[in-house]
Design brief:
disordered C terminus, Growth Hormone, Chain: A, mainly alpha, 17 helices, disordered N terminus
Length: about 450
Amino acid sequence: MVTSTDKPKVSIAVDWTEFGQGWRVLILALIGIATSVGVAPIYAFGTLVLPLQETFGWSRGEIQSAAAFQYASSVVAFQLAGWLNKRYGLRPVTLVSLLVLPLAYVLMTFNTGHLWQLNLGFALLAFAGVGTLHVTWTQLTCLWFDKNRGLALAIILCGTGLTALILPSLLSWAISQWGWRAWFWGLAALPLMITLPLSLLWLRSSVPVSTDHPKDLVDTSKTGRLTGLSLREALRSVRFWIANCAFFLAVLGMMGMITNAVPLMRDSGLSAAEAASVFGAFGASLIVGRLIIGYLVDRLWVPGVAFFVLMLPALGCLLFTTVGAHIPLLILACVFAGLGAGAEMDVASYLMARYFGLRDYSRIFALHMSFTAIGSTISPVLFGTLFEKTGSYHAMLMFCMAGFAVGALLMLAMGRYPVFANTEHPQPAKTMTAQTASST
């Protein structure tokens, strides 16, 4: 049961108490997202397209289908992640995934020139890295942060910007030195050498938010148990489907830009190094914009913030269609796209927690991510087909521009923030307290 009310008044100053308690969670989740199966292979995918085309003779549309296979399997993997996290806790699921995911990358280097091997490999990646998906890292962060939840989510989701900023150039260089297989070797090394050791040190099973949080998030009369909607109640909420539609369109357009930006700029006359360097502006703007957006959503009506920011990549699409090989304007287009990408995931994770509560967050957010994964699945197939039919990226950019605009308008229909009444049977959290976990 919920009632609607205006968002409580908040200070413009940042309350650093939560950050002092949960800084390890922020670092771990930031690295976890940067190296996750839902980020690293997708944000670096553009650097793999031409090497595979030159090596095996596959068309760009055929190669793009690999990303579609990964996102199609993600639709199921997100649900599996939500169920596994709820059943077994975050730590065991994540640690197993961090061991299996590098193995899956290495196995893909044994491709003998068959397209079905590439597609199957990408399809299995989502299951190999099920414990590294956004569901895990955003749930962990939401449990530790309330007053600064938007900013905390923005910080950890900067992992995508970190990946976009560093990984394309790094893997492009590696491919030039050792061939296309270096792309998979590099991706395998990241979770194995960085994320796994940090998880062994700092990741514990789900921890409850502290009991001094507002009543719309925690039922303080019942030992701090989490409140909010159940998955079934969320499915009956019009807001849930508005959010799904808005982010579906935004993700559809964003994935088209992410996976095609580098080849698009190569067609405009830029070298591989120049295209990868320009695309680095996407990552830089994603990081800066995400932090600003995270600060704002803690203090302003978040759908309004999202409306403004999601209109920026629409302008970026317009620039890509008109500026040719003009590098400064291409950088500006990537900046606009990066700001939009920063808003998309940050706003989505915040909205799911703020509008539907933490009681069943893992499954609700996992279901939402499954819907957006459908958009990500359609995107490579749709835009690969458009490129094959038209011989250019103009139709793709027009489609993306319209999707961003409509998605931004839908956000304005979300309405005021709800306050959740105490439930008779709230979802119990794990017994470890935040204070206990922070000392480990």
